[in-house]
Amino acid sequence: MKVWPDGAPNHNGMNEPEEKYDGVRVRKVSEAEIFVYLPDKSLNTGAALVICPGGGYQIEAMGHEGYDIAEWLKSKGIAGIVLKYRLPYGHHEIPSGDARQAIRIVRANASEWGIDPAKIGIAGSSAGGHLASTAGTRFDYGDKTSRSTVMQMSSRPDFMLLLYPVITFREEFGHMGSRRNLIGEGNDWKLVKQYCNEMHVTSETPPAFLVLADDDKGVVPRNSVEFYLALKENDIPAEMHIFRQGGHGFGITAKNLPVDQWPGLFYDWLKAINIIE
Taking the complete model, does pTM exceed 0.85, yes or no? Predict the structure, then answer.
């Protein structure tokens, strides 16, 4: 489904055709879409997860950080909605606008898709984790005066799954590639701070489950640690797993590494916070 079927309210400036390579990686994305994986009715838990693949805001790894996660969720009775968001190309507000709209679309279609509108989460890997944590800390509760049913819906996710996420754009431990691709060069602190998501946690931020590896050299663990601490300062339920080995970018296809335990742990956490029974 198109995220903006009547046309997006803004344009990311990309006029070249979208490119796919390595089978399931995409770049030059100029139209946002969601790919909906609904579980069999006999398995359905009513929960759903919007999934934001990573790629440094330069590409999107749609396979092991997108479709594969959705397939696993589907097998567990959870709807997986993979978001192919528009890449920024100098328009920093574009990706998070797409993520919020994707959540609204899922809520608007909740009844038809067998989803509980109070059990819709957001997930993201690496830069997709930055996008997910942006949506999880900057949301609205819908415009009740809008003529659009979708725009009347809240864009607040009910929980977050963050895999080795980029969290901050602070220079001492942020991921500078993601920062450059989202907000450009320069040191405009007001703009940098806008996307330091550990600084935007409030009492309304949804619960979070964080997964990362101690040997991650791509996005250093302090990103997740700072976000976890901010959640705790605001009494937000959170669980964090820092595995000994796994590096960066393992998604859901890691085999014979400690990090391959995360899906089962996440499933148990969803039970613990009463998203699923």
Answer: yes
Confidence of residue 187 (pLDDT cuts 50, 70, 90): confident
Query: How far is the C-alpha of 22 from the C-alpha of 186, rounded, in Å?
Result: 32
99, 105, 113, 172 from 94: Cα distances, Å: 9, 17, 26, 26
> What distance in Å separates the CA atoms of residue 72 and residue 91, rounded to the nearest whole number?
33
CA 76 to mean position of chain CA atoms: 19
Beta carbons within 8 Å of 259's beta carbon, 6+ residues apart? 211, 213, 243, 245, 246, 250
Residue 139 to residue 44: CA distance in whole angstroms = 27
Ramachandran region, residue 272 (left: φ > 0; alpha: ψ -120 to 50; beta: rest): alpha
Q: How many whole angstroms separate alpha carbon 267 and alpha carbon 29?
A: 31
CA distance 140 to 158: 13
Beginning with the edge strand found earlier in the chain, give each strand of the sheet holding 60-61 in spatial order.
19-21, 25-27, 60-61
> What is the Cα gyration radius of the chain?
17
Length of the chain: 277
pLDDT for 200-248, tens place per residue? Answer: 999 999 999 999 999 999 999 999 999 999 999 999 999 999 999 999 9
